[in-house]
Amino acid sequence: MAEDGEPKGKEYVLEADAELRFEVENKNENVILTLKSGYAEIFGTELVRGKAYSFKTGAKIAVFTWQGCTLELGGECDCYIAKETPMMFYLNCHACLEQLRMKAENESDVKRGPITMIVGPSDVGKSTVCRILLNYAVRMGRTPVFVDLDVGQGAISIPGAIGALLVERPAAIGEGFSEQAPLVYNFGHTGIQKNTQLMNVLVGRLAEVVHERLQANKKANVSGVIINTCGWVKNDGYRLLKHAARAFEVDVVLVLDQEKLYNELSRDMPQFVKVVLLPKSGGVVERSKAYRAEARDDRIRHYFYGNKTPLHPHSFDVKWSDLKIYKIGAPPLPDSCMPLGMKAEDNMTKLVSVQPGPNLLHHILALSFAASPEDDIITSNIAGYICVTNVDVENQTLTVLSPQPRPLPDTVLLLCDLQFMDSH
Ligand code: ADP
């Protein structure tokens, strides 16, 4: 026991270029990590010596050290030290991107910093590599833009959204990048196969706006963009990757762990795009369907209630008659039933009015910046999300959970496939 009566954790001594990997599996477990000496980082964020970092159930972490360090770990978890890591490859990528940034800064014929897209199947560490590259860029004084196109396990806003974020500080350990004023577009589903046409439109629009914003921010323009993608890399998923690469005008594609995808992209990308194959880390953990669903729920809970800094969402009633609710995409019809000149797939980006009723219970609604259905709703970004926690048919009202107090802004609401059971 330590002097203050707290049980002391176990000590681990790491050599240079090694990492301590741990996974918190037990329910309601809290694992405490402290850097005792030396230097260490978690996915590119440096640890402060002597500070206690806590990790909850579900955390899958690697504490890496370039110089060697001593760590203390308290609480129940599965852990081991790995000496083989791909961190040197990732650092090399960062160094190459940094050179391109310096060129953009110093040479008049280079207009902007590198636009990098990270691709690969599920569970190869794409999000982690994005985080490492963004953190390293910020630690060099850069302010890159982070784009997340992963609607299933993305890191911006809630699942079902795609978006962009200006990164000015390293990610907080256990939390992620600070989300002040993200640019968010609503897709509404957690799998892109649900509506690839809509996804194409949204990716195109997001790319357009990101380019506009880069034009207006010289420092971000020099720093470039890091794009995370989803793990569906076959058929329509592959076509979507190519579309995203074109829309964002990528310069570099980092392919994690799949030679087939690397070969296809090397063949299909224009000559000036550098396609690089990178190994995945042996530490990346495969996530089960149940774990993914739980992680999505956690993100929504985090959106409304906060994580380490608690938020206090509002709950209030709204009248059905005051709401303009729509969804995007009508049920598919055969081409033969479509009006002349229209294809069935045009239906997938059609705006359909939704009558409020019990069908809305537990659903997430996106608050569009578009004020009326006459505006271009699909390509309007999202101000935020609310959740329907009760439907009162008799009084024709909905109870909603909202980050903002009443009243709701008088804008269009978009119905998402996504549901959330508020257990608070
Ligand atoms: P992808 O984006 O390809 O689906 P992620 O980057 O989200 O994969 O990684 C999957 C999981 O593995 C995450 O929970 C992440 O924290 C964990 N992870 C990544 N790298 C390591 C590592 N080196 N050691 C332990 N866990 C890791």
Tell me about this structure.
It is found in: Nucleus. The chain contains seven helices and 23 strands. The chain is an alpha+beta fold and 424 residues long. The structure holds adenosine-5'-diphosphate (ADP). The site of adenosine-5'-diphosphate has 17 residues, from β7 and α2.
Task: Output the keywords.
24% helix; alpha+beta; 424 residues; 23 strands; seven-stranded mixed β-sheet; binds adenosine-5'-diphosphate
Structural class: alpha+beta
Overall pLDDT metric: 92
Give the uncertain stretches in residue-range form: none
Number of alpha- plus pi-helical segments: 7
Query: How large is the radius of gyration?
Result: 23 Å
Hey, roughly how much beta strand do the residues contain? Answer: 25-35%
- What is the quaternary state of this protein? single chain
Number of strands: 23
| SSE pattern, N- to C-terminal | EEEEEEEEEHEHEEEHHEHEHEHEEEEEEE
Distance between the amino and carboxyl termini? 36 Å
Largest sheet: 7 strands, mixed
What spatial form do the alpha-carbon principal axes imply?
globular
Layout of helices and strands:
Layout lengths: L9 E5 L3 E6 L6 E9 L2 E2 L2 E2 L5 E5 L3 E6 L3 E6 L3 E5 L4 H20 L8 E5 L6 H14 L5 E4 L12 E6 L16 E4 L9 H21 L1 H6 L1 E4 L6 H14 L3 E5 L2 H10 L5 E5 L10 H17 L8 E6 L5 E4 L22 E3 L9 E6 L13 E11 L4 E6 L10 E7 L5
Parallel strand pairs: 10-14, 10-15, 11-14, 15-16, 18-23
Antiparallel strand pairs: 1-8, 2-7, 2-9, 3-6, 3-8, 4-5, 4-7, 11-12, 12-13, 17-22, 18-19, 20-21, 20-23, 21-22
Helix pairs in contact: 1-2, 3-5
The protein binds adenosine-5'-diphosphate (ADP).
Function: Required for endonucleolytic cleavage during polyadenylation-dependent pre-mRNA 3'-end formation.
Organism: Nesidiocoris tenuis
Subcellular location: Nucleus
